[in-house]
């Protein structure tokens, strides 16, 4: 009797396992069905688009304006015909390899394999019905008198056996057809791969037959693209010339290097703004607080720019590198803000380079406010030209930043003096316009500094070098060095320490002077400077030795 009171655990677990296998198999067929339908639909859309493109090509072939490309369009027409035919072949192949009903394929189901979904649904309904009846009769059996239970017992026994038979039929069906379904899915995949492989072979043969014509077309397209690029470059240059003509008549605002006035600064509280009187003094931005002078930020190595994202109008930021600090100030008008930014920028440049009156330009492209320099060539450079100088190598051009690198004050004076006379030293040649390409600028810079194409050479470089030392003329000395004078000839190394200046000594050091070199009397340049009471040169040499 215990056998009829509850289901057998073995059959319950088996039924659950077979139901999961059936669901998994049904899901596999559903995935393949969806993929095949998508491939079929996309194939039809692709063929339709190719046919429309082919028809449009047929119309354009007869157009007189495209008579030059008639051969090209005819080749494309033939290729499109082949591609359309191959794609239709793929769609047909796909419609033959799927044995389940997939909508647009309209294929019939294999007679040996009845639809899995229908069998599964029928078995599931029968099992649920038997379970419900079993529970009902068990309850009825418990309530009835044991003397009148024989009929109910027989019906209950039959229902339990029917339930077991249904489970057995389900197991038998799955065991016979699950492996068949897996093989079927693999066969479908192989058929799909074979159809695509057939299509690629046909396309490859068609491509080989038209390869020469396609190469000619590719060459013609490349030539057309090159001509278009040339035309666009020409138009760009013409546009830049027109912009330069327009800028010639633009009024440039005149700003003063010295600036003072009222600005708004943050107070002790973050949200508090206070109006203070600011002015610039000794590369410092200072404000007055009840007649007390309070240094606010150092401007020697600083940058000032407009703060466009700030919530308040006319806000600008000042960022100082040494010491690191960042502040935000508010001006009372847009013009006032621009004047402050200009004054702070000029103060930073003056603190770094030590110049106040001249407006310096790049030695190679004449761009204003150069930020870089070449110490050994003695020129100031803009950002773009400094990048080209770096490509020459540090042995030819040693690039330094005027704002970020620390440059010795003597080197600064020497640099500015050489830059002021760089046209007489290096010559100009034919300077390319600003809108020229990077290649043209690089060619010009290499010719100017590497090949020394335009320098004015002196007749007797060694004699000119000695004369330059005695005259303390670093430009004349540099010109003699470019003409071929050697720092180790005629005692010029120690002569500069005796009768020259700090800048002449610095120039010879840049040219390769060995500070510890000794003359015929076994004196070093430092000892010569000491005997000649050249205190500035002594201090400079000692500083270099200890650095």
From TrEMBL:
PROSITE patterns, A to Z: ANK_REPEAT, ARFGAP, PH_DOMAIN
SMART domains xrefs: ArfGap, PH
Sequence intervals crossing the membrane: none
Record SUPFAM superfamilies: Ankyrin repeat (SSF48403), ArfGap/RecO-like zinc finger (SSF57863), BAR/IMD domain-like (SSF103657), PH domain-like (SSF50729)
Gene3D superfamilies xrefs: Ankyrin repeat-containing domain, Arf GTPase activating protein, Arfaptin homology (AH) domain/BAR domain, Pleckstrin-homology domain (PH domain)/Phosphotyrosine-binding domain (PTB)
All residue ranges annotated as the PH domain in the record: 256-349
Any one GO molecular function term: GTPase activator activity
Ranges of residues in domain Arf-GAP: 338-462
ANK repeats: 488-520
Source superkingdom: Eukaryota
Keyword list, A-Z: ANK repeat, Metal-binding, Zinc, Zinc-finger
Any single Gene Ontology cellular-component annotation: cytoplasm
Protein name per UniProt: Arf-GAP with coiled-coil, ANK repeat and PH domain-containing protein 2
The species this protein was found in: Stentor coeruleus
Upper lineage: Eukaryota, Sar, Alveolata, Ciliophora, Postciliodesmatophora
């Amino acid at each position: 009797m215990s056998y009829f009171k509850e289901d057998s655990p073995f059959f319950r677990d088996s039924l659950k396992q077979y139901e999961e296998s059936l669901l998994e198999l049904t899901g596999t067929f559903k995935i393949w069905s969806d993929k095949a339908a998508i491939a079929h639909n996309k194939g039809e859309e692709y063929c339709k688009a190719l046919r429309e493109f082919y028809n449009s090509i047929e119309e354009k072939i007869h157009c007189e304006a495209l008579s030059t490309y008639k051969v090209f369009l005819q080749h494309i027409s033939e290729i499109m015909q082949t591609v359309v035919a191959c794609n239709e072949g793929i769609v047909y192949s796909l419609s033959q390899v799927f044995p389940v009903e997939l909508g647009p394929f309209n294929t019939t189901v294999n007679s040996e394999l009845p639809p899995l979904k229908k069998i599964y649904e029928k078995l599931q309904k029968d099992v649920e019905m038997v379970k419900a009846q079993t529970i009902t009769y068990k309850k009825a059996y418990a309530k009835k008198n044991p003397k009148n239970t024989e009929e109910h017992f027989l019906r209950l026994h039959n229902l339990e056996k029917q339930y077991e038979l249904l489970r057995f039929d389900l197991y038998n069906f799955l065991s016979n057809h699950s492996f068949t379904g897996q093989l079927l899915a693999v066969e479908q995949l192989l058929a799909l791969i074979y159809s695509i492989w057939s299509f690629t072979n046909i396309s490859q043969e068609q491509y080989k037959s038209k390869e020469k014509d396609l190469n000619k077309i590719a060459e013609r397209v490349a030539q057309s693209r090159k001509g278009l690029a040339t035309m666009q470059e020409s138009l760009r240059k013409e546009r830049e010339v027109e912009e330069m003509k327009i800028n010639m008549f633009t009024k440039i605002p005149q700003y003063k290097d010295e600036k003072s006035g009222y600005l708004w600064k943050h107070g002790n509280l973050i949200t508090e703004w206070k109006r203070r009187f600011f002015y610039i003094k000794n590369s410092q931005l200072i404000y007055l607080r009840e007649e007390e002078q309070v240094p606010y930020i150092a401007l020697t190595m600083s940058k000032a720019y407009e703060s466009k994202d700030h919530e308040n109008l006319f806000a600008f930021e000042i960022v100082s590198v040494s010491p690191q600090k960042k502040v935000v100030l508010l001006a009372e008008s847009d013009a006032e803000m621009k004047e402050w930014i200009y004054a702070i920028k000029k103060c930073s440049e003056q603190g770094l380079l030590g110049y106040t009156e001249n407006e310096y330009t790049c030695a190679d492209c004449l761009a204003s406010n150069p930020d870089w320099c070449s110490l050994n060539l003695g020129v100031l450079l803009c950002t773009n030209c400094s990048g080209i100088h770096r490509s020459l190598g540090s042995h030819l051009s040693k690039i330094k930043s005027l704002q970020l690198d620390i440059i010795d004050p003597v080197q600064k004076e020497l640099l500015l003096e050489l830059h002021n006379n760089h046209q007489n030293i290096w010559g100009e040649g034919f300077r390319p316009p600003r809108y020229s390409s990077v290649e043209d600028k690089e060619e010009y810079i290499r010719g100017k500094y590497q090949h020394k194409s335009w320098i004015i050479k002196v007749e007797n470089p060694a004699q000119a070098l000695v004369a330059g030392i005695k005259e303390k003329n670093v430009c004349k000395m540099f010109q003699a060095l470019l003409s071929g004078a050697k720092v180790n000839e005629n005692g010029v190394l120690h002569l500069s320490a005796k009768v020259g200046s700090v800048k002449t000594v610095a120039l010879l050091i840049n040219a390769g002077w060995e500070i510890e070199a000794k003359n015929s009397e076994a004196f070093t340049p430092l000892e010569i400077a000491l005997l000649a009471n050249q205190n500035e040169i002594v201090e400079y040499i000692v500083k270099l030795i200890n650095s």
